[in-house]
Design brief:
The protein is α+β, with helices and mostly antiparallel strands. It has 17 helices and 12 strands. Bound molecules: adenosine monophosphate and magnesium ion. The site of adenosine monophosphate has 15 residues, from loops.
Length: 509
């Protein structure tokens, strides 16, 4: 039996310069108890599942709250900044989360981060607590997205308490143990750039690449050999030895992963709700579940965050918003790429914070061009799978395989194919229940449907009561399936395998 307490933690982040974090001990909740423990996350960590009510539950609470010894634990709150609803906030940081350390599992490593453990120097006016309600929501979404095969942070366990926490009404405090390869955000880079700690910006880049981007090991080694960063931070932190090749290669990776992430969200109707740059992971993980939601009725303009008064983060805008955020990350890398642009821009009002995309150094701007293709290829692959036109491969992730191009029967639909574009318009116009639509489309007899008849087949009529434009779409779909020679039983089984039967309905969550 391996328990969490037997994992020897290491906190590599706590070995970075002091400017990166503050050491903070958790402050205990009153009468804590284990409410949920996720066996999937336990498997990632190679530990045994634990059931609420088991004896180990109490010990786990004590361990997490710092009341039991844990080898290697070194709790810190990480500093970062971020663009919140388009406005730059120069210092944020973990206001209610503590990075306890990293667990090494084989050749992987995971941050263990405790959410809701009391105030930190970055709490601003907050109490450092998480209420049970929002913690349950994060726990459920983490499991749901992992189940859908979408990159996400994980939640190992959920601890409830009798600790009063005041929001609009009195609630109780809870703890969530979040597990992720890294918690570095776009906003972490923005913080070190815009506070003119450029030597630390390079340190952050090197540390991030070293830990989480092994595919860039050669580029990192070259950067260190050709222009080593000084071993001691310079007195003037603006002094930095640029490492353009490394910064550009890093951005390219983040762009690709972010494109893939949103290419995964859109087909399942996931809306993040608070796509500020401090909530964007450089690893392309879904991070910081707040007022997220899955689409119930398909609505391009859906806003799941009640405080998003200007509807900045609608479902339809997510792809554009993430590109904008990538632009902010690119701007934050300028000191490492082009000291000339950095120097000129820092004399302008707002400095690099407001750097317009067209003024980015060309290599960074070129890399941003990779976003559209990464997003579109992933999106079309998933939509083609949802339509049963291609099979979802098991095992190997699609990005590891050479894309099949053009007219091949197993190629995803190409960009601009009417079948996807028209369907999105129809679903939006009819405000059709997203989950039900895909299940019903996957259940009905497409091959046996007599397209000469006037009726829309029964399982779909109630979704499209006014019928009209849905008929020609269904005819086009039937033709595409036939053109590809997809067997009817195969189409249905493919569809039922990828289109979820149930969705985490916001009204329940
Ligand atoms: P969010 O919008 O939830 O990603 O949070 C934005 C910032 O506010 C982050 O720096 C959080 O750590 C901080 N924050 C959110 N809620 C609290 C809280 N209850 N206490 C302290 N800080 C908080
Ligand atoms: Mg956040």
């Amino acid at each position: 039996m391996t328990a969490l307490s037997q994992i020897v933690l290491d906190n590599a982040y706590a070995r970075l310069p002091d400017a990166f974090y503050r050491r903070v001990q958790p402050t205990a909740l009153r009468n804590p108890r284990l409410l949920a423990f996720d066996s999937g996350t336990a498997a990632l960590l190679g530990i045994d599942p634990l059931a609420p009510g088991e004896e180990g539950g109490r010990a786990l609470c004590d361990l997490l709250q710092g009341e039991r010894a844990w080898e290697g634990v070194d709790p810190i709150a990480q500093v970062y900044a971020g663009h919140q609803f388009g406005v730059y906030v120069p210092r944020l940081g973990d206001g209610r989360a503590l990075l306890l350390g990293q667990a090494r599992v084989g050749d992987r490593h995971y941050d263990l981060q405790l959410k809701g453990a009391g105030p930190t120097p970055y709490s601003r006016r907050g109490d450092g607590r998480a209420v049970l309600r929002s913690t349950i929501r994060e726990y459920l979404a983490s499991v749901a997205l992992r189940g859908l095969g979408i990159p996400t942070t994980h939640a190992l366990c959920l601890i409830g308490s009798d600790h009063p926490v005041y929001r609009e009404t009195p609630e109780t405090g809870a703890l969530l143990l979040r597990v992720a390869e890294s918690h570095v955000r776009f906003g972490t880079f923005e913080y070190f750039c815009h506070s003119e700690q450029h030597a630390h910006l390079r340190t952050l880049l090197e540390a991030t690449v070293e830990r989480d981007f092994p595919q860039l090991a050669d580029v990192l080694a070259r950067a260190r050999r050709d222009a080593p960063a000084p071993t001691e931070a310079p007195l003037d932190l603006r002094e930095v030895v640029p490492c353009p090749e490394l910064a550009v290669a890093f951005l390219r990776e983040v762009v690709r992963r972010t494109g893939h992430l949103v290419g995964e969200w859109q087909p399942v109707g996931f809306c993040h709700g608070v796509l500020n740059t401090d909530n964007c992971s450089v690893l392309g993980l879904t991070l910081d579940y707040g007022p997220y939601g899955f689409l119930d009725d398909f609505d391009l303009d859906h806003v799941c965050n009640h405080s998003d008064h200007r509807a900045r983060y609608t479902y339809e805008r997510q792809p554009d918003v993430l590109l904008w955020n990538l632009g902010r990350l690119a701007a934050a890398l300028v000191p490492l790429v082009d000291p000339g642009v950095c120097e000129t821009q820092s004399r302008e009002p707002g400095g690099l914070v407001h750097l317009a995309l067209e003024r980015l150094p060309e290599p960074l701007l070129d890399v941003l061009d990779g976003y559209g293709p990464a997003l579109v290829s992933r999106y079309l692959r998933r939509m083609s799978e949802k339509l049963g036109l291609i099979a979802r491969p098991s095992g190997a992730q699609p990005e590891d395989r050479e894309p099949v191009e053009g007219d091949a029967p197993d190629a995803p639909l190409s960009a601009g194919h009417r079948l996807v574009g028209d369907l999105v318009v129809l679903l939006d116009r009819g405000k059709v229940d997203h989950t039900t639509f895909w299940r019903r489309l996957g259940a009905f007899d497409l091959a046996g449907w007599n397209r000469e008849g006037a009726e829309i087949p029964a399982p779909l009529t109630t979704l499209f009561p006014c019928g009209g434009p849905f008929r020609p779409w269904l005819v086009a779909y039937q033709e595409e399936v036939a053109r590809r020679g997809v067997d009817e039983a195969e189409r249905r089984s493919r569809m039922q395998a990828v289109n979820p039967a149930v969705v985490l309905r916001n009204s329940l969550a």
